[in-house]
Amino acid sequence: MKTDVLEKIINKDTIKRYTMFSLALFISAINYNLFILPSNIIVGGTSGIASILNHVFNIDPSMSLFLMYFMVFIISFIYLSKEDTTACIFITIVYPLLVKATAGIDEIFLIDNNNVLLFSIFGGILNGLSNGIIYKIGLNTGGVGIITKVVAQKLQQGISKINLIFNIIIVLLGGYFFGINIILYSFILLYITNFVSEKILLGISRNKTFYIISKKYNEINDFITNELHHDATIFNVKGKYKDNNGKMIFCVIPTNEYYLLKEGIKKIDRKAFITISDTYEIKGQDTKLKIVNN
Fold first, then answer.
1. Fewest beta carbons within 10 Å, which of 21, 55, 173, 245?
2. CA gap 202, 266 in Å, rounded
3. How far apart are CA 197 and CA 169, in angstroms?
4. How far is Cα 163 from Cα 129, in angstroms, rounded to an integer?
5. What is the rounded average pLDDT of the residues 152-176?
6. 82 exposure class (CB count in 10 Å sphere: 0-12, 13-18, 19+)
């Protein structure tokens, strides 16, 4: 049962989300007809299967996509949530129409499809852009993604793991029909797709978060606040292994000052325990406050 908070998140800006969804599908359709289909690169998922069916049986990709998405919609209706199923309906209707509408784009933009590496790079960028937009608005890409979600739930395995297995099978199947070189180019495209979609989803990390445990926490705190001019939060912590008490400093700094803080800590206390992670987003009016728990 969904909580009120989850309902509000799902129902927030529905029109805006589906407008962005349409844009993402339009980018994907252009990418499919301009880079993917002419070069025979297999992107995995339903688009990869559509490319294989087009090559082997000369089936119109828009028709095979519609049939596959329709079957996946039935699976989603039975096993998954209303939100997933609604997105499936939308993709089932809109995406095949967009693929059909953009089918002649490779005749307008004449690009030499013999340069498969170039196609795999730009295909991966556009594919990642499309997927990243869809993930960022909290919807799904339908098709094989829905099947992997159902299988992952049934087998109690991670979705990423199951999705990877499905995509590898589709790519290897494409390699059987198009040659081993296509497998290599397909993996390049899939890597770029994953990289770009993550950057769209999370953004570029402009900050680093430091967690510092040190007996010289006052000196390190003075360095952060007086030398680097950033705020910090100091917590009481307790290590369970040796059951000893200590202090932990928490602070977020711009990435371009990462080296200064890391080296400053080393100068003050070489035995300091430091954990550093990327920070993609900072919100809240109290982010500049320094809180000390004594």
1. 245
2. 30
3. 21
4. 19
5. 83
6. exposed
DSSP state of 288: T
Neighbours of 34 (CB within 10 A): 21
Task: Judge contact between 30 and 126, C-beta under 8 A.
Answer: yes
In the block, residue with structure tokens 């993609």: 280
Model pTM score = 0.75
First to last CA, the chain: 41
C-alpha angle with apex 141: 88 to 205, nearest 5 degrees? 145
Whole-angstrom Cα distance, residue 187 to residue 82?
A: 33
pLDDT tens profile 178-221? 998 999 999 999 999 988 988 887 777 778 899 999 999 999 99
Distance CA(139)–CA(157), nearest Å, equals 21
Tokens for 217, please give them.
Answer: 């926490």
DSSP summary character for residue 108: H
DSSP state of 137: T
CA dihedral 95, 42, 109, 126 (to 10 degrees): 70
Size of the chain in residues: 294
